[in-house]
Amino acid sequence: MTDQMQPPPSPPVAERRPHSFSHHGIIVDDPYAWLRDPNYPDVQDKDVLAYLEAENGWFESAMAPHKPLLDTLFHEMKGRIKEDDQSVPQKDGDYIYWRAFETGAQYRKWYRKPVAAKEDGTDDQLILDEPALAEGHDYFRLGAMSVSPDGRYLAYAIDTNGSERFEARIKDLFSGEILPEVIPDTLSSLVWTADSKGLLYGLANDNWRTDNARLHWLGQSVDGDIELFHEDDEGFRVSIGLTSSEKWIVIATGDHVTSEAWLVPADNPTATPLLVAARKAGREYDVDEHEGTLYIKTNDTHPNFRLVKATLDAPDEWEEVIAADAHFYLTDFTLFKAFYVTEGRQDGLDQIELRDYATHTPKRIPFPEASYSASLDDNPEYDVTKLRIGYESMVTPDTIYDYHLDSGVLEVLKVQEIPSGYDATGYAAERLMIPARDGTQIPVSIVYPKDFPRDGSAPLHLYGYGAYGLAMEPGFSTSRLSLLDRGFAFAIAHIRGGDDLGQQWYLDGKLDKRINTFTDFVDVAKGLVERGYASKGRISISGGSAGGELMGAVINSDPDLWGAVVAHVPFVDVLNTMLDETLPLTPGEWPEWGNPIEDEAAFRTIQSYDPYTHVRAQDYPPLMVTAGLNDPRVTYWEPAKWVAKLRATKTDRNLLLLKTNMGAGHGGKSGRFESLHETAEEFAFILWQLGMAN
User: Fold this and answer.
1) Residue 389, CB half-sphere, CA atoms under 13 Å: how many?
2) What is the 8-class DSSP label of residue 8?
3) Which of 52, 107, 415, 626 is least surrounded by Cβ atoms within 10 Å, i.e. has the fewest?
4) Is 461 among the residues known to form the active site?
């Protein structure tokens, strides 16, 4: 590091307090266990708060000299956002709905107008005002929202501290009145009964788990709400939805590998629920209904899922409609009155196909680029003549289409506007295949300036996640341009653990195969170096949550590859978290990581890669870490303990920063501009550490 990069002196040092425990005859020492406040989520421990505040102070002092760069980055990013932006209006029943930002506003306003409304705007109705709801709160997030079938009521849920315990309210859209009933601690969709008199929802229990589906009748006390369904398995979570025809309410329960669904008539919600198929370990399924026939997506015969159908009289007797395919990963299906749509990935690329109910013959919608992200967008109605579709790529801004069923024409409705200007011809994108150490070909999406040199002299930013079967789409980002325009290439490693290449890709990166995720990422970086896209030590990397676990693992294994590392809300204390069944997510996470309480092999597997466990006396790259005090997913003490142990153990003088949002959760700050500040901080840190701050 140059003198310019040297941070101010004296970072905080957390006290080591002896603490150990034993599982399966293995003793684990954890001298920073005290950073977990025993009263969590009500964090009041003075020593804990003092340490977090000291780290925040160190972060601010270290970043202060680079405020001009941070401000420059922020204004660049903000200049690419259309401040008075609005969505493409969409018809739903008797109304047309849309949402819009006003200039300078952090949050949206939601509107509607009658289908036969005047064009002068006099019939426009503001149905929900997020800026007003957010006023006076440091954090605000709108969760579920739903208009009743008769168009009169709006149910919506808000979170004002990042804890993801939402308060549901109901607004009379005819009178503007907010009804007196308030439902606290919801964590689900909000689903109306067919007569618009009842609302289904799920409550988060004391352990932040939705184990129920409840029914509230308008005008009645919330205390008297009816529990329609209760889940006893502590690892399962309950969700609520509607079939496409809106005739049935779907109450589903499951964990990461097993699911079960029940159907309730939307016009008779207290009727005895109809079980579609009893839960079977390792089998997942989703259900929808069309004219009395159930359509079910399931992985019962193949990891890539197939589509089957059944009758309401015998919902567990399945007839195959679309067979599973090793090369096509069926990710979703949507039923409409005259046809249905399947979505999936062919060799990792998104595909949208239309099919009729008689022959089920696919008609694929073509897209122009070799690498892209495409999916159904907002399609609320059942009987349609066109489909709303969203499309983007690493060089193409977000584009909204209507696909006309009769002509097959894709009509452009809106292209994301970038007020400060954007010329796609100045950039190039590629999809590469880089071999992992076991010979598996790993897809990599990469974008860079057209004049990017291939001699290893330019910087590269590499992003990864690799968990929960979540694919990282090769989409567009306006913030990313601040790196590209400074000469960076930006790459996404589609590593195992995600489902980018199908469900087997996910299975090959979890449980006892978890190490593949980390080695894939390292091998992608080395492959990019070999191809001249980067050089050792000139690669910045980032990931969040389980992607933060990835960051922790690869800086333990290959610290000299990276020039700067950013780990957002990192899941780095995997072993301790999976050993603590009192934490909100732990029981439901065992199918993903293993249960080290009961299974010694799972204990040893997790211990073999756990980032916190494997911090050791070696040089580490510059590292920036973020956390959220109210985060229920990755608790604040995981990044805090990790940073404390790194400070006490590492042998280098490279910068190590921890920033804890004291009033936010897993997603960081809310508001479209506030969140840009955090991205600007990340990029300023990266540029500083790579010697590009000027």
Assistant:
1) 28
2) P
3) 415
4) no
H/E stretch holding 539 reads: strand 539-544
Asked if the peptide bond before residue 41 counts as cis, ω within 30 degrees of 0, the response is yes
The neighbour count for residue 326, using CB atoms within 10 Å, is: 10
Name which of 678, 665, 670 is nearest 105 in CA terms. 670
What pLDDT shows up at residue 2?
A: 40
Q: Which of 206, 207, 276, 280 is nearest to 241 (CA)?
A: 276
- CA 227 from chain center: how many Å? 29
The residues facing 168 across adjacent strands are 157, 183
Q: Which of 230-239, 507-516, 526-535, 661-670 has the lowest mean pLDDT?
A: 661-670
Give the residue with greater pLDDT, 41 vs 224. Answer: 224
Q: Summarize the confidence of residues 131-139 as an average pLDDT.
A: 93
Q: Which residue out of 87, 477, 545, 670 is catalytically annotated?
A: 545
Which amino acid is residue 45, in one-letter code?
A: D
Task: Give residue for tokens 């398995």.
Answer: 233
Q: By CB neighbour count within 10 A (0-12 exposed, 13-18 middle, 19+ buried), where does 272 fall?
A: exposed
The backbone torsions φ and ψ at residue 439, rounded to the nearest 5 degrees and listed phi first, read 95, -10
Contact 668, 53 (CB under 8 A): no
Per DSSP bridges, beta strands 373-376 and 328-335 are unpaired
Q: Could you give the CA distance from residue 23 to residue 604 in angstroms, rounded to a whole number?
A: 10
Q: For residues 563 and 690, is the Cβ–Cβ distance under 8 A? A: yes
Full strand arrangement of the beta sheet holding 212-217: 191-192, 198-201, 212-217, 226-230
* Predicted pLDDT at 666: 59
| Candidate list 189, 461, 631, 677, residue with the active-site label | 631
Percentage helix, strand, coil, to 5, in the chain?
Answer: 20, 30, 45
Structure confidence at residue 162 (pLDDT): 84
Give the strand pairing for 125-129 and 141-147. unpaired
Between strands 237-242 and 248-254, the pairing is antiparallel
How does pLDDT run across 320-329, given as a tens digit for each residue?
999 999 999 9
Tell me, yes or no, if 485 is annotated catalytic: no
Q: Going edge to edge, which strands form the sheet with 363-364? A: 328-335, 340-346, 349-355, 363-364
Which residue, 611, 605, 373, 599, is CA-closest to 472?
373
| Residue of 45, 43, 44, 41 whose CA lies nearest to 206 | 41
- Rounded Cα distance, 249 and 273, in Å: 9
375 classed as catalytic: no
Distance CA 221, CA 341 (A): 41
Q: Which helix (DSSP H) or strand (DSSP E) does residue 606 occupy?
A: helix 600-609
Annotated catalytic residue, options 290, 461, 568, 666? 666
Q: What is the pLDDT of residue 5?
A: 47
pLDDT tens-digit map of 196-224: 999 999 999 877 889 999 999 999 999 99
